[in-house]
Each structure stands twice: as C-alpha cells, then as structure tokens.
Write a structure and sequence with these properties.
Oligomer: single chain
Helix content: over 70%
Structural class: mainly alpha
Strand content: under 5%
Distance between the termini: 124 Å
Number of strands: 0
Length: 197
C-alpha cells in the first residue's frame, strides 16, 4: 500500500520536471466552446438571478439616496440663509417665528464688531475698553438663551433677548461713531500741524 505522501511527491516531481511544457502550452480559442457543447449551457440558479436584481436595486437606491441628500442639503442651506439655523439652532428650534429676526441682528452685530476690530487694530487698549461693555451684554444674552427652553413665559424672554441684541447693536454703533470722531480729530490735528510747519 502506498502512502499518500508518495503520490504527492510523484506529482510534485512530475510538475517540476515538466514545468516548461506547462508554461508553453496554450489552449486553443475554441476550447471553451467545445466544453460548453459537451456539457451544455449551465442553468442559471435562482441566486444568480437575485444577485442581478439586487445589483440593479442597489444602483437605484444609491441614486435615490444621492437625490435625497442633495435636496436635504439645499433645504438646510435655505433654512440657514433665511433663519440662521446653524448660527443659533437653539433659538431657531424653540421659536422659529423669531429666528429670522435673531439672525438679522446677529449678522449686523458680527459686521459691526469686525469693523470695530479693524478700526482699533492700531490701538488694542481702546478695543479692550470698548469690548468690555459688549462682552457683558453678550454674556447676558447667552444666559437668556440658556433659560429659553425651560422658561414658562417664553414670549417675555424672547422680547428681552431682542432688546439685548438691540442694545449690543446700539453700543457698537456708538463706539464706531466715537472712533470716527477720533480719526477725524487726528486728521485735522495733523493737518493743522503740517500747515504750521
């Protein structure tokens, strides 16, 4: 009786000895045709049919998901531009009727604050002095906003928040007016000094 390892050794030796013959031999082009004739066409299984259907459905779902994502992103972009949802989502969700007004105030305050920073860039002490009052109003606004979801009288709290935003805007306008007067005074002082010389 032969051991299984003897068969394996003989096969390995045969392949090793005839390796060149295996590498140079190429089957003819009609080999698959003859094999198919001999065995007939293989019947398609139900699993193959299901996989083809699933592939088409998968492609359709990807397209539908892409369309839904595009529509959703467009809607969020519209809401953000219209109501400032991403700027202040708590307020927009709790009181959507006032969200647009809050967004307009926030944009105006940001614009005025950036202008104030630009005008006081050469005088940081003045900016620090101006920003102290504004920071105090901003902290009060944040406290009011934190109380909004649990407040029993949300309408009164909303009016207080709007009043706070108006005060912030008024304060920034006053500070910008002061800065413009300072700059005008500096220019006239420089002009007077240059005419004296």
């Amino acid at each position: 009786m032969r051991k299984p390892s003897d068969k394996k050794d003989r096969l390995e030796r045969f392949v090793r000895d005839n390796r060149e013959a295996f590498d140079t031999f190429e089957p003819s082009d009609d080999l698959w045709g003859r094999i198919e004739e001999q065995f007939g066409e293989a019947p398609k299984t139900d699993k193959v049919k299901r996989l083809k259907w699933w592939g088409k459905a998968y492609l359709d779902w990807r397209i539908a998901a892409g369309i839904v994502m595009a529509v959703g992103m467009s809607y969020v972009y519209y809401l953000n531009n219209e109501y400032g949802v991403t700027r202040d989502p708590k307020v927009a969700l709790v009181v959507p009727t006032y969200a647009k007004e809050f967004n307009q105030y926030s944009l105006a305050i940001d614009e005025k604050r950036n202008e104030l920073i630009r005008l006081t860039s050469n005088n940081p002490e003045l900016y620090k002095e101006f920003s102290a009052d504004l920071d105090r109003l901003e902290r009060n606004y944040q406290n009011l906003k934190a109380e909004l979801p649990k407040a029993p009288n949300q309408e009164a709290l909303i009016q207080a928040m709007i009043q706070n935003l108006q005060w912030q805007l008024d304060l920034l306008n006053q500070q910008l007016t002061i800065l413009q007067r300072i700059k005008a005074a500096d220019k006239s002082h420089e002009k007077d000094n240059s005419t004296i010389i």
